[in-house]
Design goal:
about 140 residues; alpha+beta; four-stranded mixed β-sheet; about 10% strand
Length: about 140
């Protein structure tokens, strides 16, 4: 999936794949990460999707990962871990740390009950703001 992700996403300067504890735990539940926190938008949409399960190293897994990453820069891989891309290694690592932290926050929130999710309208506002976030105007 590394090769296929680079081929499908010319903007990807670095790909990060990890078996971090919280992301892997959620991936083993085959759950998307819903909009429980506005920072989910950092990954390109209102969820971080979980790709369908397929054997590691297979083309089927690569295809499932690319499908889960449609309009996104990250996904979970069912019963596996996380996959994401950034413009360079520094950004990919920062995104990986951020995604693992969000997975941990979601996991903890689920221990206390059902997290309150942001609405589609609320996430649309955040996604629009993220298009120019941090840019001087």
């Amino acid at each position: 999936f590394h090769r296929d992700l680079y081929a499908a996403r010319p903007q990807a300067g670095a790909v990060l794949h990890a078996h971090s504890p919280y992301a892997t735990s959620l991936a083993c539940l085959r759950r998307d990460i819903p909009p429980f926190h506005y920072m989910i938008a950092r990954f390109g949409g209102d969820t971080v999707r979980c790709a369908a399960y397929a054997t590691f190293g297979s083309q089927v897994l690569s295809d499932a990962a690319l499908a889960a990453m449609a309009d996104r820069n990250a996904c979970l891989l069912a019963n596996h871990g996380l996959l994401l891309h950034g413009r360079d290694l520094d950004q990919a690592l920062a995104l990986g740390i951020e995604l693992e932290e969000l997975c941990g926050q979601y996991w903890r929130a689920c221990q206390l009950g059902e997290p309150v999710l942001l609405s589609g309208e609320e996430m649309a506002v955040v996604l629009k703001k993220f298009q120019s976030y941090g840019q001087q105007g």
